[in-house]
Amino acid sequence: MIGGFRALFAAAMLALGAFSAVPATAGVLQCAPFAREVSGIEIFGNANTWWNQAAGRYDRGHEPRVGAVLSFASSRSMPVGHVAMVSKIVNDREVLLTHANWSYRGGVERNVRAIDVSPNNDWTDVRVWYGPIGDVGLRSNPTNGFIYADKPEIDQPVQIALADRATAATDSAKGAF
Question: Fewer Cβ neighbours under 10 Å: the N or C end of the chain?
Fold first, then answer.
């Protein structure tokens, strides 16, 4: 009888353990997947890899544009970097960002201030709104620059090239097209 109780108890603990084995971080929104979703920039992996992955695939630079992703460099306080999408340009030294997992673990913040504090006005060092203090953060954060989401567009209709206009006119009259 005691053996049966032990087996039942062990089975119950095993079943309960399956529910508690789910990591506490499951379902927490991270900055990289969120930035990918809102910007359309198809880069995967930790935020600190985005800048190098963008080389040759997306234009990069130091001028903010709406829809661009600001790539934050790795630092002691952000070892895996951070990425955030520019939602509005306020002026040449301030933008609004939309991003996840900054002020609150897994939280999304839309249209929060980011101020360029770099000495050369090139967006390589920024201060970003931090919810718990209700203002831009006290420390600045190094950035790599902006990754631009713009893809080349074809804005002209497709034209068929013909070698000989006279042949084209004759073929057109015959209904060859």
Answer: N
